[in-house]
Task: inverse folding
């Protein structure tokens, strides 16, 4: 039982959102979803609770120790969703009628038990999109361009998208006789940007000299998408399929008019094991971790009974809010205050409030007669413009 000291607290990693922060967050989610809808994406909603085996089948990036688990009365193990993609894969695998493509979008809370720090809570909100069915650079470039459009619609102007490819790991596998455990070690070194460690690891695995140096060099630098054509001639053979695919994507991003937002960084990987091709992460100045990311995952849906390629992304709403400049708040409401107890005056005041609301003006209505000083104090507290209704007319303060 909670003691008196913590009875009014919330669990670590959870937050209460008060006005106006809660409203700002809601508006941001709605703005992004409205923009995605213009691209033909339809909203999908999945339960907060999933069966534990569904999430582990989905190869989610969160480990078992990061899941919030519950025991159902029948003994089955449930878990709070740590992301949306695996849940959507479950729905598509068993419930979606018709044939792909499906363009789906969502905004939902997710839960991960992890270290609490700035921009990282245990409960947070994601808004994202999944394009299920099409394969190839056309679908990948659509998702990348949609991510750019969503960020711009949110009001973020200064951001960079690091574009990578999971084929980097396949390339390592093709030149190094690595077992699965060793490949996991190589993946971890790349994720942590430990290139000195990676160089040493590849030497131990048998890749030495110029080939080792060339591969590590490609991983330690980032470059403009336009440089892909030139650099592909110098890339190791094991990375040629990666460069070919990224060149096709880059050409389409140029046609979308958003290639300037991207940097190619072959060390960009994703922690989720289900990614298979193009991957990306979104960064903005002043935030030392990605505010969103995604990529192609062509094998995930087969685990749920439907072998179908897919690509998508998610934005961390709280991290995005931290990245946004302080903007204008919503239009200040009007506080309509009654100046008397006259029933006729109250009716006229109600009519005026309905009229203003029908015009889109936010109105706080106080039918109880208030002293002028009390009304002015309330208006200050609410950030409202005061209108006192007296004798059949408005007295603006």
Result:
């Amino acid at each position: 039982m909670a003691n008196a000291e913590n009875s009014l607290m919330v669990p670590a990693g959870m937050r209460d959102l008060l006005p106006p922060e809660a409203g700002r967050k809601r508006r941001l989610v709605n703005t992004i979803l409205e923009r995605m809808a213009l691209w033909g994406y339809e909203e999908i909603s999945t339960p907060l609770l999933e069966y534990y085996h569904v999430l582990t089948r989905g190869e989610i990036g969160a480990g078992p120790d990061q899941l919030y688990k519950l025991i159902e009365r029948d003994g089955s193990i449930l878990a709070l969703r740590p992301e949306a993609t695996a849940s959507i894969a479950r729905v598509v695998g068993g419930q979606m009628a018709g044939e792909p493509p499906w363009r789906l979008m969502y905004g939902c809370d997710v839960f991960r038990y992890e270290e609490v720090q700035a921009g990282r809570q245990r409960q947070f909100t994601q808004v994202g999109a999944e394009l299920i069915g099409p394969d190839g650079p056309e679908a990948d470039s659509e998702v990348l361009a949609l991510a750019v459009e969503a960020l711009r619609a949110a009001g973020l102007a200064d951001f960079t998208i690091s574009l990578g490819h999971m084929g980097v790991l396949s390339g390592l596998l093709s030149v190094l006789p690595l077992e699965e455990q060793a490949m996991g070690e190589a993946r971890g070194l790349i994720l942590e940007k430990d290139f000195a460690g990676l160089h040493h690891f590849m030497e131990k695995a048998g890749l030495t000299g110029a080939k080792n140096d060339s591969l590590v060099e490609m991983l330690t630098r980032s470059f403009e998408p336009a440089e892909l054509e030139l650099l592909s001639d110098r890339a190791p053979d094991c990375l040629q399929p990666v460069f070919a695919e990224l060149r096709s994507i880059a050409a389409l991003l140029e046609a979308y008019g958003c290639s300037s937002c991207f940097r190619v960084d072959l060390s960009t990987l994703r922690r989720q094991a289900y990614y298979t091709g193009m991957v990306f992460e979104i960064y903005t100045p002043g935030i030392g971790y990605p505010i969103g990311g995604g990529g192609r995952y062509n094998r995930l849906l087969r685990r749920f009974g439907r072998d179908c390629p897919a690509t998508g992304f998610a934005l961390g709403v709280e991290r995005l809010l931290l990245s946004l400049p302080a903007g204008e708040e919503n239009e200040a409401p009007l506080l309509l205050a009654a100046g008397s107890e006259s029933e006729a005056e109250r009716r006229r005041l109600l009519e005026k409030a309905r009229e203003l609301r029908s015009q889109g003006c936010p109105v706080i209505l106080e039918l109880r007669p208030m002293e002028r000083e009390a009304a002015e104090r309330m208006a200050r507290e609410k950030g409202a413009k005061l209108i006192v209704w007296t004798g059949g007319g408005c007295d603006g303060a």
Q: What stands out?
A: The radius of gyration is 26 Å.
